[in-house]
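Reviewer 2 asked us to include a model.

Predict the structure of this chain.
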Amino acid sequence: MQTLDDLDTRLLVDLLRDRFHPKKSLGQHFLIDDDAIDRTIELAMESGCRLSEKSHVLEIGPGPGSLTLALLRSGTRITALEVDPESVSHLQRIFGGTECEIEVREEDAVSAAWPTGITHVISNLPYQISSPVLERIRVHHSKEPLELVILLVQDEFAARMAMSSAPYDMGPLGLNLWLDFEVSLDRRLAPSSFSPSPRVHSRLVTLLPVFRPELDGIDRALFKITTKHCFTKRRRKLRTLLSEPPRRLSRARGWHKERWGAAVAQMLESETEELPGDWPDMRPEDLEAPDWVILVRLLSSM
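Predicted model (C-alpha cells):
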C-alpha cells in the first residue's frame, strides 16, 4: 500500500501534468512551493485552530494534491471539491490507496452543496472563483460557524479582502468580510511558485472568525446592498450616492424606493455625533468599517 511518505509536491504535479495540460479556462496553476505549503499549515497552528484528527477541512480546487498531501499529513479529514475530471481521477488514484480520511467529489464549489461539519476551509483558489467562494464561505459561516479559513488568492484581491491600503483597497468586499472575520495578509508568492506560472503574484490570507458586539441587530442584507451601491461610483460624494436608491433594494426585507428616499432625506437633515460631521460630503472610501455599520443602522431607524 502506498503511504504519504512516498509522495512529494513535485511528484504529484508531474504525475498529473504527464496525463494532460493544465486548463486556462479553469485557472489551473499548480502550487509547487513547499515553503508556501508548509506556511499554510503553520498558519493554522499559529491561529490557535490547529489541524488534528478532529478537524474537517474543505479544500476547493486541489488539482494535483500538493496542498492536500500536507493537510493529510496533519491527520485531518478532507473533503475536496474539484470540477476537473482528470484531477479527480488523479486524486482518487493517488490517495485512494492510502489510509487517509479524504473524499474527492467532482463538484463545483460555487454551486454544489457543501458537507456539514466543516471546521476549516483551506484552499489554493482558482482566481476566477475567489469572489463567489468567499460569498459561499460567508453564507456557510452564518449557518455553521467555521474555526478558520486560509486561502491563497491573487495579491491584489487579497489586499481588497484585508483593506490593507485604505482608502485605495476599501470596498464592499473587505467591508462585508469585516463583519465576520479578522482578515490578515501573510506570505506573498511569486509566479514561479506555480506550474504553469501565472502572470501575477499571489498571497496567503487568513480569515479568523470574530464577534463584533456593535453588529447586534444590523441588517446585513441592507449593509451589503448599501456598500456595493456606494462603491460602484466611489468618487462621488455620499450625499449624491444616497440620493439614488440601490439596485435590487427589495432584496433587503421591508425596503423599497419610497422608504429609501424618505430615510435618506431624514438622515441628511438630522444631526448625529456618531458619524463625522461632514460625512454627507465625504466619499465612500473616507468612512471606516464601523462608520458603515452606524450609517446602515441610522438608515434602518428612520
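The mean pLDDT is 91. Residues 4-211 form a domain with the Rossmann fold fold (CATH 3.40.50.150). We have added this to the supplementary material.
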